[in-house]
Amino acid sequence: MKIVALAGGVGGAKLADGLAQLLLPENLTIIVNTGDDFEHLGLYISPDLDTVCYTLGGLANTDTGWGRREETFHVLENLQKLGGPDWFRLGDRDLATHIERTRRIQEGQPLNQITRAFCRAWGIDYSILPMSDQSVRTMVETTEDGELAFQEYFVHRKCEPKVKGFHFAGIENAQPAPGVLEALEQADAVVICPSNPWVSIDPILAVAGLWSVLAAKPVVAVSPIIGGQAIKGPAAKMCIELGILPSALAVAHHYGKILSGFVLDRVDTNLAQNITIPTWITDTLMKNKDDRRRLAQGVLNLIEIL
Ligand code: GDP
Question: With the CA atoms of 17, 23, 24 and 26 taken in that order, what torsion angle do they form, in degrees rounded to the nearest 10?
Answer without folding.
Answer: -90
